[in-house]
Design a protein that fits this description.
The chain has one helix at residues 3-130. It is mainly α and 131 residues long. The mean pLDDT is 90.
Length: 131
């Protein structure tokens, strides 16, 4: 056996195994890069999908809020209009009664004086006759 040939063959085998190991490491690195890229793409796709859902729901909620605001404003305006109408109606009904009560109250002292005058005259007569 030739020792020199055995060392050279062993050297070639060692270099060959090193090259194969390096190539295997490169293949695995590329596979890992691809997996990482795929995972990143998947995450980005999901995030964009969620963003779209959030935006869609946000727009829907905004529209519902605007609609609710308009309905509330309409209800307030209708209530105010009805309140003004009711106030006008109450005023229209109460004012004539108020005027009538006021005129009756103004005549009351005169009527009381007229009603008391005959009684006062009798009292004066009796006081004069008793004296």
């Amino acid at each position: 056996m030739d020792v020199r040939k055995s060392f050279v063959d062993a050297g070639y085998i060692t270099v060959g195994l090193g090259v194969m190991g390096f190539q295997q490491a490169q293949v695995r690195r590329r596979q890992l890069q691809q997996r990482a890229s795929d995972a990143g793409t998947c995450v980005v796709t999901r995030v964009r999908g969620l963003q779209d859902q959030v935006q869609t729901q946000g727009r829907a909620l905004d529209a519902r809020a605007r609609d609710a605001k308009q309905r509330a404003e309409g209800a307030v305006n209708e209530t105010v209009t009805r309140a003004h109408g009711l106030a006008s109606e109450v005023t229209a009904r109460v004012e004539p009664v108020f005027v009538q009560v006021q005129s009756t109250a103004a005549e009351l002292p005169e009527r009381v004086a007229q009603a008391i005058e005959p009684v006062a005259a009798r009292v004066r007569e009796r006081m004069n006759s008793a004296a």
